[in-house]
Amino acid sequence: MMQQYNANSYLFGGNAPYVEELYEAYLNNPGSVPDNWRAYFDNMQHVPAVDGSNRPDVDHSSVIASFAERAKQGPIRTVSAAAEADPEMGRKRVAVTQLVAAYRYLGSRWANLDPLQRQERPPIPELDPSFYGFTDADLDTKFNISNTYFGGDQASLRDLLNMLRDTYCRSIGAEFMYVSDPTEKRWIQERLESIRSTPTFSAEKKRHILERLTAAEGLERYLHTKYVGAKRFSLEGGESFIASMDETIQRAGEKGIQEIVIGMAHRGRLNVLVNTLGKAPSELFEEFEGKHADDLPSGDVKYHQGFSSDVSTPGGPVHLSLAFNPSHLEIVNPVVEGSVKARMERRGDRKGKQVLPILVHGDAAFAGQGVVMETLNLAQTRGYGTGGTVHIVINNQIGFTTSDPRDARSTLYCSDVVKMIEAPVLHVNADDPEAVVLATQIALDYRVEFGKDVVVDIICYRKLGHNEQDTPALTQPLMYKKIAKHPGTRKLYAEKLATQNTIAADEGDKLVAAFRDAMDAGRHTVDPVLTNFKNQYAVDWAPFLNKKWTDAADTAVPLTELKRLAERITKVPEGFKPHSLVDKVLADRAAMGRGEMNLDWGMGEHLGFASLLASGYAIRLSGQDAGRGTFVHRHAVLHDQNRERWDQGIYLPLANVSDNQAQFTVIDSVLSEEAVLGFEYGYSTAEPNTLTIWEAQFGDFVNGAQVVIDQFIASGEVKWGRASGLVMMLPHGYEGQGPEHSSGRIERFLQLCADNNMQVVQPTTAAQIFHLLRRQMVRQFRKPLVIFTPKSLLRNKDAGSPLSDLTKGGFQTVIGECDDKIEASKVKRVIVCSGKVYYDLVNARKTRGAGDVAIVRIEQMYPFPHKSFSAELKKFSNATEIVWAQDEPQNQGPWFQIQHNIFENMDEGQRLAYAGRPASAAPAVGYSDKHVAQQKELLDTAFSKLKGFILTK
């Protein structure tokens, strides 16, 4: 039997917890383990340590702590000398340890989790005592169980099996043995084993759980009869989720949480709005009847709406926010995390002791959507951690029409993705509401104790179809036969409480009737909802609403202040040694700050940041190369070349601008676009007074986050009234780097522009980026700002600006002809362009001696600056030809989105033509010779006779 044990890979592969208890016992007392194991561990001590030394292995602090805990329970008993001399008894003692570990590791596989009982219990030999050589004759033999938390030092094998099965194989199936930290692991073991995963709630608590189930079921049935066939994405079959949410919020308040942000998709959302957040049923009914409180340009369906309220808990008021969410499942996850991060920082809550994120998932989406993994990967990072998230899965065992496990996923559980961050999972049967509440308590306590993610997987069913108009039996006939026979969780629990004499036999029916009366009256179902509570950390968005993009903003900074700032951001602490290349950058920037050199882009950006920080505006900048800059132009984080530790020796000049400056945060993000951009959007919606910036490594990679752009950034305000001042920096420019390193896809952003929903700009000088960044904060106007930033222009001297340009004026939406030698009266053609191509056109004009051609730059493409552009065109009254020139292919770039704006401002008789690359399926060519040829053709077309498509006004 030991040979069979030793051959089993799950014991000796990645699953070390199976022998961990033995090894720890050995380290504490080598004589406490059997001879064969002691010999094995003795040999291990002769293996050199990682540092090459021959020091013996010792138990670390967490192991010592565990022994201290055991010491409180009394000394470990050892068997008699006669028993110790018996090899068979020694083998059995080891087998008991293995059996305990097996139940902790695999017990969830035998747990009673499915309310529908659709599948038989799988064969798992490791959970059968016979696997370890035990027989019925051993059942009443007593063994040492001091490595458990069942209480006492010894128990018969029969009692131990009952305790293990009660704990790990009933209504709760726990997965946690993959957690690396022994302290966390033992915490969970103690919580479960000390009560055998069996709650002992008071009668009052049980009645409250029944009331929550009644409310959950009652709302769905009321809506089903009152609004027949209307989509609502019913929670029926998963009503225990409402009891779980109630417990999470109330217990979180008791633990000191003051603010909770909730993200969830549409399943059960209306139930949460009414029965958790306390939205008045009468308001929900009005939405079903087509009435809307807000007059938004677009609006959204009722099961996407957000809401906020304040509820009373044992620890005081808790503010609840349900994030607005589109139908793109799980995409709200990073948005919620970003919003939580902003709220934490506003409170000075570094570890998430006051703010809690709750993410509610569907089983199919949790396993299927990539943004889940991306968001989980943020959990323990410095820039994005929120002190742990409570995940609750409404696991109705079906995704649309996919329920066969062979099709639904490639993992055993829908929650297996969380094992990447070692988050414990508590699977629980929804038909046991008390177990659901207990699992919720343990999960919330774990999050509070350890500041890490945790999952409650509520395994339930979906009574109706994906929506109320579906007929699910078409594709799941067997499942829906079982569901049709299921009486419902509320009814089962009410009958159980009546049998226990906890409630009267008719009390369950009375609760149902009382809830329906409340629905008829449109009354609140959450008591008490606090109506007059004022949160001192709430943000007032009123000053930023209903403003115009044309509102003036004073972005100039006095020369003396610019020089002071320049001096501060170009100095490093004494003894700090930057890289020689960075030394040169700092020296050049110091000269720029003295007015001895024109500012380059990096210095213009830095002075913009520094002036905002000194004025009290915080800055949060993140991206895959945000500290240094993809093109090595920023150097916001300096690295000491003589540092001796990997986690020391950095210096942030922008964090040392003034004594009382605002916070400057720069984050080199994980390699993710979708989750990180969603996070920063969420942050920006909760903090209007921070300049929140996400920078793509290359603008091309932004399409990895297209859902965030489409569903939140572009349309969030017109759908939900959610304002955001998020800044996106997208490096863009055609310099022969190929299809994936040339285009930030200007055309896609311009296609999304309407209702003054965002700003799309392409600045071309150091002064322009300075004024633009300042305008975004100084002006009380919060709309997303998309900046197509340059690459080659970062070091192009022609794109530099004198320091004096920062002391006057502001961001120019249009820059007219800059060459004094161009006489306006002689101009016959005006070339209009945006971005880097301007400098190519200027050089080409000089080469050709084309003195009758003027060049006008559009720096802001949306909202289109009609007045400024028209004023520039009118300067050239004799011009008959207008040419739009762009780097991008004809079917991309601004051309198709901007031509009507140009045409609108032309005079009668003027003609409009295009100069640029031909239409292409790819953003750019990958062959350098083709790139050069296309660039030449672009410039030739811009200055030669009009051809191709021509619009005449």
The helix content, as a percent range, equals 25-40%
Largest sheet: 9 strands, mixed
Helix/sheet category: alpha/beta
| CA-based shape | globular
The share of residues in extended strands comes to 5-15%
Could you report the average pLDDT, rounded to the nearest whole number?
Answer: 90
Topology, number of strands? 26
User: How many distinct helices?
Assistant: 33
Please compute the radius of gyration using only Cα atoms. 33 Å
Please report the distance between the alpha carbons of the first and last residues.
Answer: 93 Å
Unreliable stretches? 1-18, 47-53, 60-64, 74-83
Strand order of the largest sheet: 3-9-10-8-7-4-6-5-11
Account of the protein in words:
The protein is an alpha/beta fold. 38% of the residues lie in helices and 13% in strands. The chain is built from 33 helices and 26 strands. The strands form five sheets. The protein has a nine-stranded mixed beta sheet, sandwiched between helices. The chain has a seven-stranded mixed beta sheet with strand order 15-12-16-17-19-18-23, with helices on both faces. Helix 3 crosses helix 7 and helix 14 packs across helix 25 (674-686). The radius of gyration is 33 Å and the shape is globular. The protein starts with a helix and ends with a strand.
